[in-house]
Structures are given as structure tokens and as C-alpha cells.
Amino acid sequence: MTFTILPKIKIHYLMIALIIICSFSGFLGQILLISFTILLHEMGHLFFIILFGGKIKSMTLNIFGGRLDANTSKIKKRWQKILVDMGLSLIHISEPT
Predict the structure, then answer these.
(1) Pairing between strand 65-71 and 55-62?
(2) Which of 49, 67, 74, 94 has the fewest CB atoms lying closer than 10 Å?
């Protein structure tokens, strides 16, 4: 069960419930930071998939991370697959602690 915010971007209902609960308990800033980090990470995968000719079906954000449904059959070279898999994983190194 998801809530569609854009044609290809969906948010799972548990993620929405967690944001609401955290807003009442004083942790809204933290959960929004985590949600934004998940979104950036998935956008990294999305960027490389589009760059190398793949097609995006949908992206779903949930409390455990994100899920990107894509057609990557046009991506043949190993180095391109590695870049798609890495996405923007380096963004996690620059997260504030």
C-alpha cells in the first residue's frame, strides 16, 4: 500500500505514519533527515540508470529504505552496472552524526 506523490514516486503508508508519530514525539527533524537521505540515495541510482539508457517504472520510499523498479536491460557494460549499483552511496559518508 502506497501513497503516490508524483506519477513515479510513491511513499509507503508506514513511512507516512512514522513521520506523523515522530512529529508528535519531537523527532520530526531526525525522521525528515533520514527520509531525505533515502531519497537522495535512490535518486543516485535513478540518475545512473537514466544516464545509461534504462527506464524507470517507479520509486517507492519506505521505513527500511527505498525500492526502485527499473528496466536495466540496455545497461550491458560491467562498469555501468557497478555505477548503477553504487548510486550515490558516498552521500552516506558526508551525513552529519
Answers:
(1) antiparallel
(2) 94
Contact (CB, 8 A) for 57 and 69:
yes
pTM: 0.75
Instruction: Give the tens place of pLDDT for each residue, 40-51.
Output: 888 888 888 888
Average pLDDT over residues 27-50: 86
Query: Do 10 and 2 meet the contact criterion of CB atoms below 8 Å apart?
Result: yes
**The 3-state secondary structure of the chain, one letter per residue:** CEEEEECCEEEEHHHHHHHHHHHHHCCHHHHHHHHHHHHHHHHHHHHHHHHCCCEEEEEEEECCEEEEEEECCCCCCHHHHHHHHHCCHHHHCCCCC
C-alpha cell at 81: 552496472
